[in-house]
Design brief:
It comes from Rhizobium grahamii CCGE 502. With 68 residues, the chain is mostly beta strands. 0% of the residues lie in helices and 51% in strands. The chain has a single domain, classed as NifT/FixU-like (OB fold (Dihydrolipoamide Acetyltransferase, E2P), Beta Barrel). Strands 6-1-2-3-4-5-7 form a 7-stranded antiparallel beta sheet, with no helix packed on it.
């Protein structure tokens, strides 16, 4: 699914256009954000693509939702 990752005053957030959902990112699997999973405040876990650490935000990426 397409997900836009952006920086907000509260920190990083993820926006899913198809669901009209924007949630803060509350947990990172990897410190660099890219190439691991992130946990959204609503409980969704998303697997982000492996991108360089210096990737500029905001950016739209193809992410995969992981089910627990």
């Amino acid at each position: 699914m397409k997900v836009m990752i952006r920086r907000s005053p509260e920190g990083l957030s993820a926006y899913v256009p198809k669901k009209d959902l924007e949630e803060p990112i509350v947990e990172f699997e990897k410190e660099s954000l890219w190439g691991g999973s992130v946990l959204l405040r609503n409980g969704w876990r998303l697997l982000l693509p492996d991108l360089p650490d210096d990737t500029r935000l905001p950016i739209t990426v193809e992410a995969r939702r992981l089910l627990d």
